[in-house]
Each structure stands twice: as structure tokens, then as C-alpha cells.
Amino acid sequence: MKDWTLLRVIIGREYRAWKKPFLISSAIIFVVVAAALTIASVAADQSSGPATQRVGTAGTTPPTFAREVMVFVPDEIVVEFVPFATAAAAEAALRDGDINVAAIDDDTIVWGDGVQDPVGDGIYRAFANAQARQQASELGISASDLERLLTPRIDFREANPMDPEDSSEADEAIAVIATIAMFGAILAYGQWIGYAVVEEKANRVVEVLLGAIRPHQLMGAKVFSIGSLGLAQITGVGLLALGYGIVSDGIGLPSARGTTVFWVVLWFLLGYAFYGSLYAAAGSLGSNTQEAGSTMGPLAIFLVIGYMVGLVSFGEGFDTVFLQVISFIPLWAPLVLPGRIVRGWAAPWEVALALVIMIAGIYGMLRLAGWIYTGGVARATQKLGWREALRAGRELGAD
Amino acid sequence: MLLLDALEKRFGDVVALDGCSFEVAPGQMLGFLGPNGAGKTTAMRSVFGLVRPDGGTVTWQGHPLSQAVRRTFGYMPEERGLYPKMPVRQQVVYFGRIHGLERGEAEAAADVWLEVFDLADRTDAKVEDLSHGNQQRVQLIVALIHDPPVLVLDEPFSGLDPIAAHTMAGVLRDRAASGSAVLFSSHQLDVVEGLCEDVVIINDGKVILSGRVNHIRAESPRRYLDVVFDGPFDHRWTSNLDHIDVVDDRTDGARLLIDDRVDVAVLAATTARAGTVAQFVVEPPPLSEIFREVVAS
To answer: Closest by alpha carbon to B184, among B289, B110, B66, B78?
Structure first.
């Protein structure tokens, strides 16, 4: 039997074994995410203020005010004009929250609570323009001269216009989201891998399996199968959020460059593979799930360091030697390098070298995990330290 | 031929194997005996690469063992290794595939073996829901399903009831008869004696006795005599006999330990004078006694 066929058989069993927990946890996560999106959407609607703005008028407002409001206030905002007999009545209605803005005579605007740009800015500019037209008429300025006065003649340029090849906010947003997602995914699904390993060790199945398959192959199949389930789950959550956003017209896919997406996905997968192997090794140190929980705990420290450094690297002026060095270390490269690549801070040779080191690190970690795993088989009833397990594994002659 | 040649293995200060050598030929069923900690499990695990010997070699048909060759072997570890929540048939098919069978082959073989071991009605049961004996049967099927040329079983009879032990013994005989090299360890020496033609006894990592069971027993200078009288007999019939020990003095006779200086013909005549003899059987000591003797020495 070819090795690939053997791996396929093992991966298939892992999928069957994890099918039920995967479906249950996915259903729970999807429900939670959908609920969170709904709550967030409702909260956003409330914080953005009402879609209809009620503008109270009292006295003689500039004649073109209503028309100017239609020009300057965004189309999605419905502006309703409510006339009041006196300024006092309008201001009383404002205090009671019956209206959002009061326009009084030709020189006063009073804002109520919750009026924000662009609505507030639009109403202000509309009132100013209407006031200017009224004064121009009183001064005898012709309509055409007035249009010239009101039409800005400004040569507005950016000193450093954006190159289409430069990173955009969308690019950086994708990189940040990928860093956060990787952190969360590794924390959650890495533990799945660790627990799967210790379970197989605790029930001694591994001894039968290792008679037929090399330890690093067994590890690799486990990391791949459970890791891919985790990736499927997180992809599903992402698609759910995106679909929800599209349906509710709230968000859309950021228009990031293809190269950005390529790099973040590549480093996401590399980081996932590396930490997945590390969690497999950590899980094999315990003799039961409780012990495996404690042996996997310290890995979170490495993850948090990488996560914090990774997010800091998105700030301006942080491309230090420290960041350059840490980008070559497999523990942290997946969390730090995507941000540097997106911002154009990582030279091509740095990326290439980091990739080579990362791939070598994954290979080494798979072998290391295999040794540690094999070392654990002989001492299934006790918790092992990293060095002890490694020594035992090498002594036992893991391939 | 599976050959374990001059195996050496040390775990810290503990010597697990100390020049251990023996071989199992195709079609041979070899009982592997030794007290706890003698090195049996270490030797068996070395066949599957679960232990790397410090010295010596393990070969099959004259060649060192590769992973591909080991995959064709069948192994039943002392600590049973099954997925507790996996259904029986699915589990057996899975291990068949791990050992190189195609899906269809594995399914067909699983059905045959589950029938042989009277587990055909438990195919969908989770392993953890089976009795200990049935779990043991499933473990053996896992080792057998791919028709291995070499079968290595560490304490296969441990915890089995007599019926299950009988079934397992029958299957092992069949495997050997069909050409497999069968190596198994056991502390149940009566089972080994009844099942194997050949044994290897190991102690402190060294082979201290090996060969045909009959030869080993026959080479002992001692014999046991079992006498049963029909009716009344002279209970003092052994009092004037030299070089004997009465091991068991019963109301219908006795069991005597005699050494090689005793003339059996004279003994038979003496016995006949004591009463009507219904049974007079002289036999070499059982394997369990020889085992205790060689291990103690």
C-alpha cells in the first residue's frame, strides 16, 4: 500500500471520529455568530440614529432652505419638515425629542441630540447656502454671479497620491483579520489535535498503529485531518458573516489585492500546520486529557506573544530590527510577517528566507512530534517532560 | 524465518535483553515464556520497531525488517489497543486497511473473522460496550484480518474464559497450519503446553531454555507416576520404595515423584502387589514445573 493511501485511510477515520463534535460545535458557533451579528447590526442601527430626520422650522427661514437640504443631505436620509408657530414651540419640541433640528428665522439652527455627520453637516451647509442666496438676492447679485460665488474653484491635489500597487486599508484589514483569525483558530483547534493525540495514546491504539505506520506520518495525518476540520469551520463562520453582511447590506468583501489574499492565506496555512504539529507533540506528553490540557497550556504564551507583536506591526513606524528578526522564527513568522508583507516592509529575500525556514520548521516539528509521540507510548501511564519524551522517542527508534 | 539474533537492550540500569536469540519458522507456533520483567514484551516490540535494540538484529526471511514488511505482520500488544467508541466491524475494517487491504477485501475478511469469533451479531456495537473477552477477540481479529505471514501475540489468553481460550487456540493452530509463523507469550503454561510444539523460555533478557516441549520434558531426570487403585489397597505400599516422593496421597491412589534411578518395572510390580491397579501412568514433569525450575536456577 502506498503511503498516501495509508494516510488517506487514517484521515478518513479521523473525519468519521470527529464528525459529530464538528457538527455540534459548528452549529453552536454558527448560532452564536449569527446572534452576535444580529445584535451588532441592531446596535449599529440604533447608534447611527434614525433614518428619518425631523427638521422643525419657525419664523422666516431662507426660502431655498428645503431645496438645499435635498442637495446636501444624503439620499438615504429622509428629511421631514415640521413647521412651528414660534421659536419657543420649536425649541420645546427639540427638547422633547419630537424633532432633531430646529431652523429658526434666517439665522439660527439649533441641534438636538443624536444629530451626526453627514446629516448635521448637510443641514448646516444647506442652511448656509440658502442664507447666502437670500442675502445675494437682497444685495442684487444676479443668479449667475451667485452660482459662480457658490461654486468652489479649488485645485485640490494629494501631494502623495496612492499607487494602485500600494496597500490599501482593505489590504491591511485583511491582514489584521487573518492574524486575529489565526490566533483564535490555533488556540481552539490546536487543542482538538492535542486531545485527539492523547486519547489515542491513552487507549494504546497507537502501539498497534505504529507497527504499521511511521510516527511522523501518523502525526501528519492527524494534524491535517483535524486541522482541516478547524479550517472548514472557521471558513464557514467567515462565509456566514460575509453572507449576512451582503444580505443585510451592511458590509461587503474588502477590495484587497490578490497578492495580499495570497500571502495571508499562505501564512495562515503554514502557521496552522506548524502549531498543529506543536499541539500534537504537547498533547502526547500527557497520559490523559487533563494532563494534556496542562502540557498544552504553555503554547498559548507563544501564541499571545506572536499575536501582540503581529498586531503592533500594523502600526506606523514599527518596522524595527526586532520585527525583522522575529519574522524568521517559525513560532511567530505567521503572525508577524503577513502584516509586514502587506505594508511593503519585507524585502523579497526576507519573505523567501522566512518561507524556507518555516517549511523546514514544519517538517522538523512533524518529526519532533513523531519522536515525542513514540516516546510517550512506552510510558503511557505517566506525564512526561518535553526533553524526556524526546529522549525516549529517539531511544525507541522512531523513524 | 523470523530471526531475533543476539538482541541487546538496556533501559537505564535495567537490562531488558541480554543477547536474546531465537527464531520462528513459517508454520511454527512458538510459545514465548518467562517471568514478569524477563524481556518478552521488549523482544516482541522490537519486531515492530517499537523498541530499537542496542545490539543484535531482527530479520525476516534473511532481510532486515522494513516498515512495509512490518505492516504485513500481525501484532497483538499486551496492553490492548482499540478505539473504544468505534463500532466493531468498522474498527476491524480500518485496521485491515491500515495493514494494506483494499476496502472490499477488508470488509470481506472482517465478516469472515467476526463470524469465526461469534461476533457477527455485534458488528455495530461500540468496542467499549463489549465484554472483556469479546474485546480480546476483536483485538485478535485486528491482528489476523490481513492474513499475516507473522503473528506476534503478547499474552493473547489473558482474561479469556475457557470457551474463548479454546476458540483462540483453535485459530492460532489454523494460522500455523496455513503457514504463518506464530509467536505468542503467555503465563498460562498449561495452555502453552497443549498448544505449542516449541517453546522459548527467557529470563533476565537471556534465553535459558528452548526446544520442543516434548524433548524438554523428556530430558528431565524426574518422572511422575499416577496410580489409581480399583477397590481397597495397601496404603503403606510406598513406604519401602527408594528415590520417590509422595506428592499427593489420595484415597484411591497416589501421585509420586520418581527419579531416574527408579526401575519402573520393579515399581509396577510393587504397585500391583498393593491392590488392583486401574491406572498406572508414568509421565515427565509438566512444563510449568520445568519453567519454575529453570527460572529459579
So the answer is: B78
pLDDT digits (tens, 9 = 90+) for A73-85: 887 788 889 999 9
CATH label, B2-217, candidates 3.40.50.300, 3.90.226.10, 1.10.230.10, 3.90.930.60:
3.40.50.300
Chain A environment of B75 (Cβ under 8 Å) = 208, 211
- Of B113, B159, B116, the closest CA to residue B135 belongs to B159
Residue of A nearest to B102 (CA): A1
List the domain boundaries for chain B: 2-217, 220-296
Q: B97, B130, B142, B151: best mutation site toward chain A, by most A Cβ within 10 Å?
A: B97
Residue A87 lies in a domain: yes
Res A398: pLDDT: 45
Q: Which of B75, B90, B98 sits opposite A6 (nearest CB)?
A: B98
Distance set, CA A175 to CA A136, A246, A368 (Å) = 53, 21, 30
Phi, psi of A286 (to 5 degrees): -85, 165
Answer yes or no: is pLDDT of A46 > 70: no
- Which CA distances in Å does A350 have to A342, A343, B5, B202? 13, 14, 53, 60
Regarding predicted confidence, which is higher, A253 or A76? Answer: A76
Counted residue by residue, chain A has a size of 399
Q: Judge whether residue A399 has pLDDT over 50.
A: no
**Where in the sequence is the domain holding A60, given as residue range(s)?**
52-150
Q: State the DSSP code for B254.
A: E
A267 shares a domain with A118: no
Could you say which of A150, A177, A211 is where a domain stops? A150
- Considering A316-325, B87-96, B166-175, the range whose residues carry the highest mean pLDDT is B87-96
Q: Check pLDDT > 60 for residue A255.
A: no
| More confident of the two residues B229 and A380 | B229
**How many domains are contained in chain A?**
2
Both A114 and A192 in one domain: the answer is no
Query: What's chain B's length in residues?
Result: 297
Quickly tell me which residue has 492523547 as its cell.
Answer: A198
Q: Are A353 and A202 in contact (CB under 8 A)?
A: no
Pairing status of strand B29-33 against strand A78-84: unpaired
Q: Tell me whether residue A13 is in a domain.
A: no
Residues of B in contact with A19 (CB under 8 A): none
Q: Is the dihedral of CA A209, A213, A215, A216 positive or negative?
A: negative
Do A109 and A237 share a domain, yes or no? no
